[in-house]
Amino acid sequence: MRILSLRLIVALIVGISLVSVASSWYEVRNENATLRRDLEHKAGPLGESLAANAESFQQEGNRAGLEQMAKQFTNRDHLLGIAVFAADGAPLVVTPSLESMLTPPPPQLRSALDTNRPQSRFALQRLRTVYLQAIPLHDWAKHVSGAIVVVHDAGYIQTSILQIWGRAFIRIAVNVLVIVVITLLILRWSLAGPVTRMGQWMRALRAGRPAVPPTASDLDFLGPLAQEVGPLAESLQKARTAAETEARLRNANESLWTAQRLADQVRSQLDGSNLFVVSNREPYTHNRRGKEIVVSVPASGVVTAIEPILCACNGTWIAHGSGDADIESSDRHGRLKVPPGEPRYTLRRVWLSHEQEAGYYYGFSNEGLWPLCHIAHARPMFRTSDWEHYVAANKKFADALVEEIDGEAHPLVLIQDYHFALLPRMLKERMPHARIAIFWHIPWPNSESFGICPWQRELLDGLLGADLIGFHLQAHCNNFLDCVDRFLEARIDREHFSVSRNNHETRVRPFPISVEFSEDTHESSRSIVEDRSALLAELGVEATYLGVGVDRVDYTKGIIERFQAVEAFLERYPRYQEHFTFIQIGAPTRSRIKRYEEFQAEVANEAERINNRFMRGRWKPIVFSYRDHSHHEVQRYYRVAHLCMVTSLHDGMNLVAKEFVATRSDERGVLILSQFTGAARELFDAIIVNPYDTQECSDAIAQALNMSVDEMADRMRRMRATVKDHNVYRWAANLIGALCDVRLESRDRSTSSGSHRKA
Ligand code: G6P
Question: Is beta strand 128-138 parallel, antiparallel or unpaired with respect to 144-153?
Fold first, then answer.
């Protein structure tokens, strides 16, 4: 503050002085010119009349008259005197006080005699500024007979100029003093106070001491600075909390992955390369609600895992812009910085027409590939027009990627899911220097099932454009290699799990995805029993035991089988009638597809049928809540449920199972898990069931409700340890780490590979 004041004062002094000096100089220049002009005006007629007198004295030969003139015209009205010279320049008469000044005679005299014209000018004679006039004199014949020199004192002009400068300096000094004093007072009263208070507040924040934030008037005065300081303080607080948690967790468990550790690791691995993520769903969607535009974030594990990395390395996420206000929320290239309010990376939206979306997303992806990859007995639909839209949409994403990647020396591209089987090849052909991974979030079927797809070769070839293909399970990797083996000409290395085709190697690896895991997720101040009663009251249901299922209403999830298991349970264990309620959270999904629309109706009808059979008073066996629920809402259900049922007929991983486990910090609750989920390969302490076996599932419900607290806690503790250790950040770190390694390893291994031809 002191240095700032000093600089400000110096700047003010210099500024004010420069302005004042410049204006004084202008004033002086004018004054000088005016005074000189006055003197010239006065001296002109006087000189002429003196010359006329001197001329007549000279013509008359009246020397006494000339001498009288010389004595008489002295020291009058700035006139210092006169001198009369002969035609040869010899002095005839000189006012005595001028003798020394006019010896030798001034050059104007010679000039007047030679040119026969009056000469005048200001001159410095013997350190005195004078105004000199030399006027030629003539004889009767009008020949030059001499000259008269008239000398005026011009020193008073100098004096007057000096006085003006003196006054100017006094004025400058007073101005500087007054303005500096006023500025210092303003600084002290208006700026120093708020800045000091803000400084104290920030110092307290830095030191982690409780602190009162600056008042509204302080913030108001500091304007835009204040707008930034609030969020900055919040970020600081968050960073401190994250760092503390990180430090605590590091001490507690070296192997635990956090968002921060992932971001740090990826930043160092990328080593200046940029990361590009592609997915169909975007991490932020803009939609209109009346006149407002609201942003929503999908409750997706992938967003949770990928976002910290993109934030850490300022990457780019390319996704389908599906919100109805997406276009107006992006620039003309479809780009915007996200997260909103704290921009850290770029979201590049790709626009698809309704027909394209219908063919690529609803058609080929979700009516073709989705049932093809899930063994859920839904017939895949393969329409040529859908395939063409799928190709075109993949091409559109490839174009967007190429635009974004252009100029990058070592780009890293992470493609998500079955919507983009062709994208790796399309990109590799145009950007061979890009390292490309695709993660397939759903199962990969065996070669018999896959073989029914008319575009089996195109899909496999498209995927093999990637340097790395990730699946959840080793079994899916094996199925994929079998399909390549069966349908393509390629070299398969089963020892290293890689495929070589056209001099390009693709690694195929399992990366089981997971969820975020935070130690304490229980925010409510009430007990679990109180929370459960509150939730049931909101639903208008009375029950003692609660089961929960959370799914998109998709035919692969085994929702109807689950309801039938509840029905069988109530039949076989009738004492639970009027006591056990199963709540099914059903998220609407892909409802433009006929099969999904039908399935939603089937689920609702089945719930109604079972309810009608058993319902009594305020109790009913099934609550089917068909709407989008926020992550927070879903967590409330997880937290109060006695059991959670995940009965997918087939599922790549199933994150609901892991979310339920991650939420139960109280080590209560039982997970009933389908053997056909990827999660069943990790969560051995769940009650593992065959969802098609209704009786087994109904027994599992009974087993869960009768499990001792100790056994429940033991199972939950072990499952929590697994999810905690293998959380979503570890998944992302492993996937990106493997992609970063892939090139180096390929080069190293190309000389030592023991691979064999298997075509
Ligand atoms: C599957 C996919 C995910 C996708 C999810 C939701 O689990 O593997 O990538 O996010 O379905 O599907 P949606 O069609 O709504 O994006």
Answer: antiparallel
